[in-house]
Write a structure and sequence with these properties.
Blueprint lengths: L1 H4 L5 E4 L7 H10 L4 E4 L5 H10 L5 E3 L6 H6 L1 H21 L5 E6 L23 H20 L3 E6 L1 E3 L18 H9 L6 E4 L11 E2 L1 E3 H16 L7 E6 L5 E2 H12 L5 E4 L14 H6 L8 H15 L1
Parallel strand pairs: 1-2, 3-4, 4-5, 5-10, 6-9, 7-12
Antiparallel strand pairs: 8-11
Helix pairs in contact: 3-5, 5-6, 7-11, 9-11
This protein binds uridine-diphosphate-N-acetylglucosamine.
Uridine-diphosphate-N-acetylglucosamine binds next to helix 7 and strand 7.
């Protein structure tokens, strides 16, 4: 929707494995422009080939990937097969047809537990803690090598923790089954779908003992993609592969998020302290100076606004 609002003609490819076709109607209701849609699994080489034959594409934003950290530990080959093959096939087609301008959904997971906070883009890439995290690291490497060899231009956006729903409350997050992420678990608990929220650990070396993350409103995140694409299309990029942190720069503990949620929604939340979740880090929040200065992008929405939008979205579901 942010691309459409900025005048781009958008073509969506999705296999609908973790999304619903009705989203297209919801986008159309908000923007009054129906995006073209192709149901394609990016691992289907022939389908990707045909798609590029039939469509004149100026740039690609590659969001499609499996993203559940815990599941990736159980099913590593599914994650490598999906996240890596899809990326490689896409880049191959782009290279073969001289389609330039590639934006990649990367993650702050590439930094692991950074030694210095806030995390700048100069922080070293740590050994990945999960196959999911590894696919993001390997993905960045594949893009770096491709940019160098084929003279392509790409930007990786390293997302911190995206949350919230569009202000129209027509587009939001719909996790399949039991949510793994904090915010959908909170909203489902407040809605009575889940009995209680387990707070994973209160013995971290933080001010209240719970883990700290940088929660970024998904619409602010979307706007960063528009800026990144414009940077490539306008040939403003300084290197042919650049990367940017996309967060708010503010860290919030799990307890702070719970309290903020209770305050803005006036909903008491049923929670209990549980053991730490395996693989979780203590603290991650972004230094966003590079995105602020180079992309000329700054997040607008507060944690409270993002939580309220997530709650309104949840209420519409139940
Ligand atoms: C993880 C990944 C991130 C990925 C995202 C998407 C890492 C370091 N981060 O984010 O790259 O994009 O998943 O799936 O691999 N929590 C609870 N109770 C719950 C759920 C979560 O206390 O029921 C806590 C977690 O322990 C954590 C915080 O809430 O401290 C945020 O968790 P979550 O929303 O799952 O995101 P990350 O694990 O930070």
């Amino acid at each position: 929707m942010e691309l459409q609002n900025s005048g781009f003609e958008v073509v969506i490819i999705d296999d609908l494995s973790n999304s619903r076709i009705e989203v297209l109607e919801q986008i159309t209701e908000v923007t009054e422009i129906k995006p073209e849609f192709h149901q394609i699994d990016l691992r289907d080489k022939k389908a990707v080939y045909n798609f590029f034959n039939e469509n004149k594409i100026e740039g690609v934003i590659h969001f499609a990937a499996f993203k559940a950290v815990g599941e990736s530990v159980q099913k590593p080959l599914d994650y490598y097969e999906n996240n890596i093959n899809a990326l490689v096939y896409l880049l191959q087609e782009m290279k073969d047809r001289n389609v330039d301008h590639f934006i990649f959904s990367s993650s702050c997971t590439v930094y692991g537990q950074a030694d210095k906070l806030p995390i700048t883009e100069k922080a070293p890439i740590k050994l990945a803690k999960s196959p999911y995290g590894n696919t993001k690291q390997i993905g960045e490497e594949i893009i770096k090598d491709s940019c160098k060899a084929y003279n392509m231009n790409a930007i990786a956006l390293r997302y911190f923790n995206p949350i919230g729903a569009h202000e129209s409350i027509k587009i939001g997050e719909l996790p399949l089954g039991v949510p793994q992420n904090l915010i959908p678990f909170i909203t489902q608990t407040a809605a009575g779908i889940r009995e209680e929220l387990a707070v994973f650990g209160d013995d971290y070396p933080t001010s209240d003992g719970t883990a700290i993350r940088d929660y970024i409103h998904v619409v602010d995140l979307a706007k960063a993609h528009v800026k990144a694409l414009q940077r490539l299309l306008n040939k403003q990029n300084k290197e042919n592969f650049e990367f940017f942190n996309v967060g708010t720069g503010k860290g919030s503990s799990v307890m702070e998020v719970i309290k903020a949620f209770e305050k803005v929604t006036q909903q008491p939340l049923n929670y209990r302290i549980a053991a730490r979740r395996e693989g979780d880090i203590t603290s991650a929040y972004a230094d966003t100076t590079k995105a602020n200065e180079v992309l000329e992008w700054k997040p607008q929405e507060t944690l409270e606004e993002a939580l309220l939008s997530a709650w309104k979205w949840q209420q519409k579901q139940s």
